Amino acid sequence: MLLRGTISYTLPTSTLRLRTTYTYPQNVAVSAQSTSSKFSISDQDLESRGFVLRRTVEDLNLDHLNSVFVAVGFPKRDPVKIRVALKNTDALLWVEYSKTQRPVAFARATGDGVFNAIIWDVVVDPSFQGIGLGKAVMERLVEELVGKGICNIALYSEPRVLGFYRPLGFVADPDGIRGMVYSRKQKYNK
Ligand SMILES: CC(C)(COP(=O)(O)OP(=O)(O)OC[C@H]1O[C@@H](n2cnc3c(N)ncnc32)[C@H](O)[C@@H]1OP(=O)(O)O)[C@@H](O)C(=O)NCCC(=O)NCCS
C-alpha cells in the first residue's frame, strides 16, 4: 500500500509506526550535562555514569542478554536462534554496565534497509529501568534508521508501554491504518 508517498504495509493493531517527520524529544529525561547532544542524554554522560553504548554483537554475551529478556518477562530463547536473529538484524544497540560488563539495555531493528524497519526486543534490566536507558537506546536506534533514509519504522507495543513510545514519535494506527498479523505461537524455549 502506498501511503502519502511512502511505502507502507499492514501491521498488527497494536503496532506503532513512526511519523515520517521525526522530531527528537526536547525534554531531558536524565539531567544531561552536555547541551550539545541531540539526545536526551549524551554518550559522554552515559559513560560518566558507567554505561557504555555498543552497536555490534561482539562482546555481547547472549546468556546475559537472555537473562535480561527473562527478567522483564520475555520468554527465554535458544541462544543459537538468538545468534541467527542478531546476524539477520540490520541495526542493534545495547548498553553495557561497566561495573559488571553485562548488558542492561538492548534494542534491535530488522528491515529492508531502505523503506521499512521494525524494532524488536526493547528491554532494560529491571534494576536499571527508569533512569533513561530505554529512551537513550531508542533515540539512537531511530536516529540510525532515519539516517539511512528509512521512512517507516514500526514496532509492537504492549498496551502498558504505549506511553513510553509516544514521546519518541510513534503513533498507533496512523491515519486509521490498522495492522494485521499472522502469528503462530512459538515454543520459545526450544
Ligand atoms: C519499556 C522500557 C524499555 C522502558 O525503559 P526505561 O529505561 O525504563 O525507560 P526510560 O527511563 O528511558 O524512560 C523514558 C521516558 O519514558 C517514560 N516511561 C518509561 N516506561 C514507561 C511506560 N511503561 N509507560 C509510560 N511511560 C514510560 C519515563 O517516565 C520517561 O519519561 P520522561 O522522559 O518524561 O522522563 C523498560 O521499562 C522495559 O524494559 N520494560 C519491560 C520490557 C518491555 O515491556 N519492553 C517493551 C516491549 S513492547
From TrEMBL:
Pfam families listed in its UniProt record: Acetyltransf_1 (PF00583)
Domain N-acetyltransferase positions: 52-188
Keyword Magnesium among record annotations: no
GO MF, one annotated term: N-acetyltransferase activity
InterPro entries per record: Acyl_CoA_acyltransferase (IPR016181), GNAT_dom (IPR000182), NSI-like (IPR045039)
One Gene Ontology cellular component: cytoplasm
Keywords: Acyltransferase, Transferase
UniProt xrefs under PROSITE patterns: GNAT
Gene3D superfamilies per the UniProt record, alphabetical: 3.40.630.30
UniProt keyword Acyltransferase present: yes
Family per record: Belongs to the acetyltransferase family.
Protein name, UniProt field: N-acetyltransferase domain-containing protein
